[in-house]
Design a protein that fits this description.
Oligomer: single chain
Structural class: mainly alpha
Shape: elongated
Distance between the termini: 35 Å
Largest sheet: none
Strand content: under 5%
Length: 57
């Protein structure tokens, strides 16, 4: 099972492609349909992007 995505993982992002590699759904097979998994991924990506903005200040 893969590990969860946390905000502190933002330090590992150097370019936009790293964001796709870091964000992964631990419970993708448990989701009732793919749209909920996509929504969850989008939420994690948004949280990581907000952390990157905090680091740049």
């Amino acid at each position: 099972m893969t590990k969860r995505t946390y905000e502190r993982d933002a330090i590992f992002i150097e370019n936009a492609d790293d964001l796709e590699n870091i964000v992964n759904d631990k419970r993708s097979c448990w989701r009732s349909n793919p749209s909920k998994a996509i929504r969850r991924q989008r939420r994690y990506k948004k949280r990581l992007i907000n952390e990157l903005v905090k680091y740049d200040r």
